[in-house]
Amino acid sequence: MPTRPRRRRALLRAAGFGLAFVVPVAVLAYLVRAESDVNVEIDHDVIDATTDWTRAHPVAHDVLLVWQEVFNVRWVALAGLVTCAWFGWRHHGLRTRALWAAGTIGGAWALQLGVKALVGRARPVVEDAVAHAPGSSFPSGHATQITATTVTLTLLFWPLLGPRARVVVPVVGGVLVLLTGLDRVLLGVHFPSDVVAGMLLGGGLAGASYVGYHGWNHHLKLDPDPSRGPVNHP
């Protein structure tokens, strides 16, 4: 099959995949900007309940603060980029895959900053606040970055994973994403809609970029399809 039509179809599939995630984020952003009564009520009710719980559990509060720092956007992005560099150095035949992953992780960092600037939502205002965070609220940078990074790294390593690891790795990644999102709401530094938008943005970016990347490089025998099973490399 000619390369050009195949690549064109891959890019169209990637655009369609990304659009499926962008649309709900755009709807949420519109509701936020329009200050929809339903959205405002749900967001504030959840924040009131979660911050009350955090105040009542000092040990959990301390753990949440530590989690916030460990999974800071900068540290997650840096860890992801270092992992990509190591992967490309260790597995020469998969260097294009490592470059794709690094670009996606860096892109997620830039994307969340851009959307924050565009929407310009203020952080939740909580009496007797349990934590403070700078910058705009929508979307959650933590949620965007951890989702994009875990999905991207899972896809990066997929050809090298055995059957058991192909179950464990996505589950562990999903747990990290959910706990990070929960951390943001329990600390009262993000509304739940911010977290949902961040997860959608991060997951959509990682998935769409992979669909486009894999279709574009499908002809490269040294960059295998992860659905074909683990690949052994020296």
TrEMBL record:
Q: Which domain of life is it from?
A: Bacteria
EC class: hydrolase
Query: Is the keyword Phosphoprotein assigned to this protein?
Result: no
Annotated signal sequence range:
none
Keywords in alphabetical order: Hydrolase, Membrane, Transmembrane, Transmembrane helix
Domain Phosphatidic acid phosphatase type 2/haloperoxidase: start-end pairs? 97-210
Q: What is its EC number?
A: 3.6.1.27
Record's protein name: Undecaprenyl-diphosphate phosphatase
The taxonomy runs: Bacteria, Bacillati, Actinomycetota, Actinomycetes, Micrococcales
- Originating organism: Luteimicrobium xylanilyticum
Give the transmembrane region(s).
12-32, 71-89, 98-119, 139-160, 167-189, 195-213
Cited InterPro entries? PAP2/HPO, PAP2/HPO_sf
**PANTHER family given for it?**
AT30094P (PTHR14969:SF13), SPHINGOSINE-1-PHOSPHATE PHOSPHOHYDROLASE (PTHR14969)
